[in-house]
Amino acid sequence: MSAISEANHPSSIYDEWDALLAPEEAGLVRKAQAFCDSELIPFAEHAHRTGNALPRELVQSWAALGLQGLQTPRELGGQGASYLAKIRVVQVLARSAFAAAFSLNNSHSMVHMIATQASAELRERYLGDLLSGKLVACIALTERGGGSDLAAMKTTAKKVSGGWILNGEKAWITNATISDLAVVGAQTAAGTKGIGRFLVPLQGRGAERLGAHPLDAGSASGVGALRFSDTFVPEDHLLERPGEGFKRSMSAINGARVHVAAMATACLERALEVAVSYGQRRAVFGEPLLEHQGLRWQLAEVANELEAANALVLRAARLINAGESAELPAAHAKKFATSRVVSGIERCMQSMGANALSREHGLHRQLAEIKMASYADGTTEILNERIGSHLVRRYP
């Protein structure tokens, strides 16, 4: 058994994951756990009550542990961790703070993107401050009314001398409220072959933050909107040439779907852990709650779905980590995990009665935030389309 599992989750669903990590990656997971316990969980409760986004100070604390450069290559100042290590880190965070975990995962993923796709000049200009948390970056692809249909993108980039002029508005952007840089998808011509991606400083002329979207839950993710009005972007800030932006977005979406599914699974695992612990302690009619067959079977159903979700997520994650095709496994993992987690947490809470609403457990907050998983990086309906497109080939 790994040191991580032995310390935190004896004989847990994470054992198989942890066995795949290098020792230094296991150390990063332990750092993430300590950060979660000391800083992220207290903030998550505060954010749920106040509607605050993850503050820059927490990003900097995270960065001080070296975790802002989690996947960034070592030769560029990062940790060079694997995709599987990234998943384990985000599982640790999401167990108790789903929306805040979504923010941090997005933030360090953007550092990795800029480190590996930007020119040497741009890395020299921005990477050090991104790794330290002095600067924060976000990705701006989604538009109001567009959703997952990137081909319907209306933001435009017009070629001019020395660069490009951007016009358009982006919505539902994680970390929009605290970011200094945005990787913006824009149309240079009609159709998917015209989509490029540009690194845009948000302090520049014509770049405007439109504030946070008013959310009933999940405010810690800092979701908001951005507007670009005749915003000039220098030629060297073009990250992906027209046509490459769409291809990379489609390639990256499978990895994103798996880490969202992994986050959802981790949330359900913690809810079950809380419910089982409560059922052992609380006595009703002279015996522990967990000894009552009706309750025990209810939680057994949750455990069964949790194990299935974890197996699907692990299968897809291993394929992505190996650089293999994972479109169908990723779709299955996200659809199943996100569809089961809401009802699973509800059943765990039902088993605890009114005590499930106690703030100390954090289950009500997690239940409210977890609906984000059903929308982010592909809705259930989009995933059904992906799975459906494979039916004839998979089951001829």
**Uncertain residue ranges:** 1-9
Main CATH class of the largest domain: Mainly Alpha
Alpha-carbon distance between the two ends:
41 Å
Largest sheet strand order: 1-4-5-8
Number of helices: 14
The beta-strand count equals: 10
Helix content: 40-55%
Helix-strand pattern: HHHHHHHEEEEEEEEHEEHHHHHH
Secondary-structure content class: alpha+beta
Shape: globular
CATH-derived architecture of the largest domain: Up-down Bundle
Count of structural domains = 3
Approximately what portion of the residues adopt beta-strand conformation?
A: 5-15%
Task: Name a few traits of the molecule.
alpha+beta, Butyryl-CoA Dehydrogenase, subunit A, domain 3, 10 strands, Butyryl-Coa Dehydrogenase, subunit A, domain 1, 396 residues, Butyryl-CoA Dehydrogenase, subunit A, domain 2, 14 helices
